[in-house]
Structure formats: structure tokens, C-alpha cells
Design goal:
single chain, 642 residues, alpha/beta, GIY-YIG endonuclease, Rossmann fold, 5 domains, seven-stranded parallel sheet, 19 helices, 27 strands, 31% helix
């Protein structure tokens, strides 16, 4: 009788026995609490003192490789997270169904020789960068290319080299909405070699992708961050497109960043890693330009050789001084009308969801907040009705609640949401075909592809959207960009707000002038003298990085210090305060420096939240000494503080 440690799909790590010898990575069926569950063999172990259950059945041999198990253990160690949670990243959902079991039984390895015909010749600038990456012995590369410079074509050429060698390629994108465009572009070259993987897939599609990675039947895997956990056996290249994007950071346990996962994959497989962006993160820019750990490549010429879009700044002070009730200044209205006459498309950026925000009591001024969260409720409008929603906990109010302070039922809004802006847009331009584009409108499985195709086919003249429209999409007929209120991101209380803002603005500006010479950008702002707009007008934003790095170094912010966020939450504020006080006492006794404060949004999901921020490269040693209980959440290298 042999004994094995099994990582079950229910995020449990248990010991089972088996009469036959099992392999590390085997997929097995096992009984737990009189129910069947499936899991992965992690390792052989010694006979325990307690009685064990026997493995029910081996479903698939070597379902994950030893490198995947090593990766899970690296994630567990670095992100200070239980191993069973990390092993679960590599287990597809709902395998123990009839359809999934049949798929496992019938899967076989097939010969699939790549038929590669590159569609475009590289420009001189592109070819120079491609050859440097191809011939370099350095494993890590930053491709810093202005929007429209053809980073994707360089990706294709690098991918070709690894496919010809029979190796696998992982191409990561931050958001699912970017996959249709990339898939269409890649598919013209690599045809049947591409597998798309993301959270929108059903259980059968996920399992098929898993088996294709395991068997090597497919060579290119395009997806969001979860695609990193497919069971590659011969991974040669990882490309992280739009590397700067915050969506690469997982906000639930384990709170990993795809940038770190790419590094681990490189260590385990010897793979080359290419980080691509028009606006690289401060962390990767420092690693490339200051530390020289990452090889730096710049693409500073657009493929179409078009000039930079003309940027017009419009002050909102005078606009609202004239008692205007909408966000469209006369300058922007005139340019949209002119664009419509030319039969060109317009993209408008506005980042606030809902119809009306910041609702206040008309009598006493009390803010209308969610019962569960310290956050204002947002009004949403349907065709014939409206409702209130908390965008933190998701709680819906079908009827307007009375004011907690004076019991009044009259409220007024001080901030427009995108739905109200969309109404104004249709009133101002009734002749135009308009589209509102935000996460609420992209809930369906194929909605990203359908919307992308509709815009590409010019079914819409004006697209009003949130950050979604700024991300790497290529629309040839867009030649006017409007940023309706630039201050929404600039005024956010976060030391990264300047970096996030310039990245967002540069990305949205990059959606125009990709194929035309007459692209324009209108930025509406209350802070017309803000230095960020000088950086935007310059083709080379390296000055921004230099200034920002000096500021971060001066005030001891990342990337010059590594942060670890300890987050504690409790339904009772006095219990939370006591727990935080006890932890602070332990840290003080150990002489450890820290910052302690209430969460940016103190109450969420009916719990109060508090942050303790540690600094340093070895937080696990501190955490071990202060003996945190399981109610503490640990976030290494946090990107947000709410």
C-alpha cells in the first residue's frame, strides 16, 4: 500500500492510499465526506497515523507536470498563501461529469505541423528590434513601442521562431475583450495552432485547452492571466502584451501578478519573456533602464508613418460657469459634428458607471450610501424604471430608500454616470449611431467579439466607453478621441494615480491616427495646467518616467521598496480595532516599521477593513513572527488599497 498527498478541487490537501503506484500529476477520483471529488497527485508520502481512504480511480495519467506543481509551490511561498489554494489554479472546473470524463478517455496526441506564412514584411525599425530579441541570450525583454508601431507583428515573428522549433508559446492579454482582435490577426498566420483560454469558456472548452497544452497538439495559447496555469510541457516563449495593465494583478487569493508568474515560467522552462507596452509599468521600466535586468527595446516609429494626433485641452471651468448640464463642451461638440460629416468614428472616454452618482438628500445633504459598504449608491436606469446599486457588494435597491438622517425621500445627484452621459450624447447627436460600452454591456460569452466586429464594420459612429475602449484595440476609422473628464483618474488618492492616468490617456490617444493623418484628441479638464498634459504632447514620455522614479525614490515608494499589505476585516468595529492594536503591539515589540490606517473604503460587504503596510523583501519572516490568523488577508506588491 502506498500513500499520496492529493490536492482536491475543493481546495483541500489530503492523504489517500493506493494499491498501485501513482505518478506525480495524475488526475484521480477520491471520496470525501461520502461525495466524489477529483484532484491531482502532489507527492508520495509516508503512512499517516490516521486511517486513510483509498483512491477511487485514476482518471488521467500525468494530467499536470512537475513544473506546474513547482510553480504552485513558488506562488504559495512568495504570495504567502496556502498550497492547496495554489494547486487549485491548475485544476479545471467540473471534470467529474460524463462529458468531461468522456473527453479524457478519448483524448489522444496528434501530429499537427505548423503551416506558417507571415503576412507582412517588417519595417527597418521593427526588424532591428526583432533581430535583437531573437539573437539575445537575455531571457527578459521590454518592447516599448508607441501605439501603432507594430508590436504585434514583432510578436508574430518571434512566435514563428519558437513554433518552428516545436515549442509552445503563451501570449497573455490583460482583458478578455482584447482576444478577438489578436486571434483574428494571429490566425491569418498560424491557422489551427491557436487556443483561446479565459474565464468565459465553459468547462468543456477549458478542459480541451488543458489537454491541448498537455499533449502539445496546439502550440499557441492566447488568454488572460489564468492561461499561465495551463500544463505546458515545452514552453519556449511568454509574451505579456499591455504589460502595464492593472488587470494582470489578481485581487483574490492567491493575489499574484502575471509579471511574476511569467518570471517563474521562465525559470522553470528556460523560456524567453517579452513584455510589451506603449506605456510600460514603472516597475518594468526601472528593471530595464535603471537596473538593466530586462533588455530594453524601443519602437518609436508608427508603421503607417503617421504623425502624432493633435491634442486640444479644454477647460471645464468656463463650460460649467455657463450652467451647462452636460459634459460636452462646444469645442468637442463642433469636432464631433465635423467628424460625423467626414463619416469617421469617434471614441469618447468616461469612467463612471451608472446613470447618477453621489446622490445627496435634498433636505439635509446626507449622502445616500449602501447599507453594507461605505460607498455611495449608484442609480441605474432601465427602459421604464430605475434602481440603485452598490458597485462594491452588488446590492440592489428597487425602491429609493429614505434618508437615514431626516427620513426624506428626495435626493439629487452631483455626478453623472455613463448612462446619463449617453443620454446627453444622443440628444446632442440624434443623427449618429451611438454605442455605450462598459463591463455591464459585455457580460455575454461572445459579446467582446461581436462588439469589436460591429465597430470595425462601422455600425456605430460614436462609441462612449470606460477604460475598456483604451486597451490596445485597432479601429482604422477612428480619428477623434474625447476624454470627457480627465480629472476622474488624476484626483484618485493613490501614489500610482499619475502613472495610471498617463497610461490611460496615452492608450486612449493611441486609438486614433493609426491609419490617418488628421487624428485629433480633445481633453476636457479642470486642471488645464497639470504637467501630465505636457508629457502627453511629447512623443517620448521617458521624461515622465525619470521624474516619477525620482519622486518615488525620494518618498520611498515602489519600485524602490517592496510593500506587503495586511488587510483585516470584521463586522464589529471594536473587534477589528482590538485585533489591529494587538498586531501593532507585536510589530512594535519586534522593532518593525509599518504604516497602519483604515482602508480607503473602510466598510465593504458589511465588514470594516484596516490595512497594515509592511516594507521589505522578506515579509514572510515578519508574518511568521507575529502569528497572523486566517482572517488576515495578505497582498504582496499590492496595486490598490481598497
Amino acid at each position: 500500500m502506498k500513500y499520496y498527498l492529493i490536492a482536491l478541487s475543493k481546495k483541500q490537501l489530503l492523504t489517500y492510499s493506493s494499491n498501485s503506484e501513482l505518478n506525480i500529476g495524475d488526475l484521480v477520483l477520491a471520496s470525501i465526506r461520502n461525495k466524489e471529488d477529483y484532484g491531482i497527485v502532489i507527492k508520495e508520502t509516508t503512512k499517516p497515523e490516521f486511517q486513510t481512504k483509498e483512491i477511487t480511480k485514476v482518471l488521467f495519467q500525468n494530467f499536470v507536470g512537475e513544473n506546474q506543481i513547482k510553480l504552485a509551490e513558488k506562488i504559495s511561498k512568495f504570495y504567502i498563501c496556502k498550497k492547496e489554494v495554489c494547486y487549485n489554479l491548475f485544476i479545471p472546473p467540473k471534470i467529474n461529469t460524463k462529458g468531461s470524463l468522456k473527453l479524457l478517455e478519448n483524448h489522444e496526441k496528434i501530429e499537427n505541423n505548423a503551416n506558417i506564412e507571415l503576412q507582412h514584411n517588417l519595417t527597418e525599425n521593427q526588424n532591428e528590434v526583432y533581430e535583437k530579441i531573437k539573437n539575445s541570450k537575455n531571457k527578459f525583454h521590454l518592447l516599448h513601442g508607441v501605439t501603432g508601431s507594430g508590436k504585434t507583428e514583432i510578436y508574430c515573428n518571434i512566435i514563428k521562431d519558437f513554433i518552428i522549433k516545436g515549442q509552445q508559446v503563451l501570449l497573455l492579454v490583460p482583458e478578455i475583450n482584447l482576444t478577438p482582435q489578436l486571434f483574428k490577426y494571429l490566425n491569418t498566420t498560424f491557422q489551427d495552432q491557436i487556443v483561446v483560454y479565459n474565464s468565459k469558456l465553459n468547462k468543456t472548452e477549458r478542459l480541451k485547452a488543458h489537454l491541448n497544452a498537455l499533449s502539445g497538439n496546439k502550440k499557441i495559447f492566447l488568454g488572460s492571466r489564468s492561461a499561465s496555469f495551463l500544463p505546458f510541457n515545452n514552453l519556449g516563449l511568454v509574451i505579456m502584451d499591455e504589460e502595464h495593465d492593472q488587470a494582470y494583478k489578481q485581487d483574490t487569493n492567491p493575489r499574484y501578478h502575471s509579471r511574476a508568474i511569467a518570471q517563474y515560467l521562465s525559470e522553470l522552462f528556460g523560456a524567453k519573456v517579452v513584455y510589451g507596452s506603449a506605456t510600460p509599468s514603472i516597475e518594468i521600466y526601472k528593471a530595464a533602464k535603471v537596473q538593466e535586468k530586462v533588455e530594453y527595446h524601443v519602437l518609436n516609429q508608427k508603421v503607417k508613418n503617421t504623425k502624432e494626433a493633435e491634442i486640444t485641452l479644454v477647460c471645464l471651468k468656463s463650460h460649467f460657469r455657463d450652467r451647462c448640464e452636460h459634459l460636452f463642451t462646444q469645442t468637442l461638440v463642433n469636432k464631433i459634428n465635423y467628424n460625423l460629416e467626414k463619416n469617421k468614428q469617434t471614441l469618447l472616454l468616461y469612467t463612471k458607471k451608472g446613470f447618477a452618482r453621489n446622490l445627496h438628500c435634498s433636505d439635509c445633504g446626507e449622502n445616500l450610501k449602501c447599507n453594507n459598504c461605505d460607498l455611495s449608491l449608484v442609480e441605474h436606469k432601465l427602459k421604464n424604471s430605475s434602481y440603485l446599486k452598490c458597485h462594491m457588494c452588488g446590492l440592489h435597491y428597487r425602491q429609493l430608500p429614505s434618508c437615514k438622517n431626516c427620513k426624506s425621500n428626495e435626493f439629487k445627484s452631483h455626478t453623472q454616470g455613463i448612462e446619463q452621459v449617453y443620454e446627453n450624447l444622443n440628444e446632442l447627436f440624434p443623427q449618429a449611431k451611438t454605442l455605450q460600452l462598459d463591463a455591464d454591456k459585455l457580460s455575454g460569452k461572445n459579446s467582446h467579439k461581436e462588439v469589436y466586429e460591429a465597430i470595425l464594420n462601422k455600425e456605430y459612429d460614436i462609441i462612449l466607453g470606460t477604460q475598456l475602449i483604451a486597451q490596445g484595440l485597432n479601429f482604422p476609422d477612428v480619428n477623434l478621441i474625447g476624454i470627457l473628464n480627465a480629472d476622474q483618474s488624476l484626483n484618485f488618492p493613490d501614489f500610482r494615480s499619475f502613472e495610471k492616468s498617463i497610461s490611460l490617456f496615452k492608450q486612449i490617444i493611441g486609438r486614433t491616427n493609426r491609419h490617418n493623418e488628421d487624428g485629433e484628441v480633445v481633453i476636457q479638464t479642470w486642471q488645464i495646467d497639470n504637467k501630465i498634459f505636457n508629457y502627453l504632447k511629447k512623443e517620448n514620455t521617458n521624461e515622465f518616467y525619470d521624474v516619477e522614479l525620482n519622486w518615488r525614490k525620494k518618498f520611498n515608494y515602489p519600485p524602490y521598496v517592496r510593500q506587503t499589505r495586511l488587510l483585516y476585516s470584521h463586522t464589529k468595529k471594536d473587534k477589528l480595532n482590538q485585533k489591529v492594536k494587538n498586531t501593532e503591539l507585536k510589530l512594535n515589540q519586534l522593532g518593525i516599521k509599518y504604516n497602519s490606517s483604515s482602508n480607503l473604503i473602510e466598510k465593504m460587504h458589511n465588514k470594516y477593513h484596516h490595512n497594515i503596510i509592511l516594507e521589505g523583501n522578506q515579509p514572510e519572516k515578519i508574518i511568521q513572527k507575529i502569528n497572523l490568523d486566517d482572517n488576515w488577508k495578505i497582498d504582496r506588491d499590492p496595486q490598490n488599497f481598497y
